[in-house]
Amino acid sequence: MMAALNQVVLPPITDPTVLAAIERLARRYVDASGMAMDVLQSIGTSAEGLIARLPGPVRSRLDRITSAALSRAFDAAAGSRRVVRDRGDWFNRMASTLSGAAGGAGGLAGALIETPLTVTLMSRAILEIAAEHGFSPEDHEVRAEALRVFAAAGPIAADDATDLGMLAAKLSVTGQTIQGLIARVAPRLSAALGQKLAAQAVPVLGAFAGASINYTFTRYYQELARVHFGLMQLSQESGIPKEALNERLRMAILSLQDRQKAVRRA
How far apart are CA 12 and CA 176, in angstroms? Predict the structure, then answer.
């Protein structure tokens, strides 16, 4: 009985303009993951068992490396925006691609060293998208929202939208410290980066694999940032609670994914 009383009743969304905006965001989310699988196929590997390919010592260090990278990334990314003006999606993807190529040329060791730079470049890309949607990257809460983008499952992981990381309620508690949020986000990003490192370690391909995968990861998190901050902007403009928009988006994503599965089976 108490559980029923504590449930929040979300308002229905009937405005066709809002529904159309949610549908566009859902399409963006679904399309973001699809490109990653195409890239993996192009470099001759698959998502199956990627993490298992990493040496044990690398897997055990990855959480620590990711936490440290996230702790420094947003300050570095915000600082770089004061020195170098925003250049847009293309520039950030190319910078990440070049970083991935350099890391991939050095094999797994090179890719591991390059990881903090990749996280910083992706962080800057996310902050630029926050600014594009009218949010100040200098604001503490906006940086926290940018961190939540990294809580998504990653472009290589199977994600059926039942656990949308950047939309999960457990990550939307207001007043969380940045370090507390990093502690929650780091394991999710670490798993995604582990898949990235394993894919970059494909023999022979080296720099090409590193460049392709870094491009894919940066594009993926840019697209998710547009979904995340687009939803926040939609909430501000429409007055509809973000929780209601989140739930409608989740349903729209599941519907799109179901339709895609039906087409593949036909």
Answer: 29
pLDDT over 90, % of the chain: 14
Tens digit of pLDDT for each residue in 86-124?
A: 566 666 666 676 676 666 556 667 677 777 888 888 888
Amino acid at 45: T
Q: Packing angle between helix 178-200 and helix 140-149, nearest 10 degrees?
A: 30
SS (H, E, C) the chain: CHHHHHCCCCCCCCCHHHHHHHHHHHHHHHHHHHHHHHHHHHCCCCCCCCHHHCCHHHHHHHHHHHHHHHHHHHHHHHHHHHHCCCCCHHHHHHHHHHHHHHHHHCHHHHHHHHHHHHHHHHHHHHHHHHHHCCCCCCCHHHHHHHHHHCCCCCCCCCCCCCCCHHHCHHHCCCCCCHHHHHHHHHHHHHHHHHHHHHHHCCCCCCHHHHHHHHHHHHHHHHHHHHHHHHHHHHHHHHCCCHHHHHHHHHHHHHHHHHHHHHHHHC
Which tokens hold the place of 144? 């926290």
What does pTM read for this prediction?
0.77
> How many residues would you count in the chain?
266
Q: Cα separation of 146 and 30, whole Å?
A: 19
Q: Report d(CA 135, CA 57) in Å as an integer.
A: 40
Q: How far is CA 97 from CA 40, 90, 216, 230, in A?
A: 15, 10, 9, 25
Under 8 Å between Cβ of 216 and 155: yes
State residue 232's pLDDT score: 92
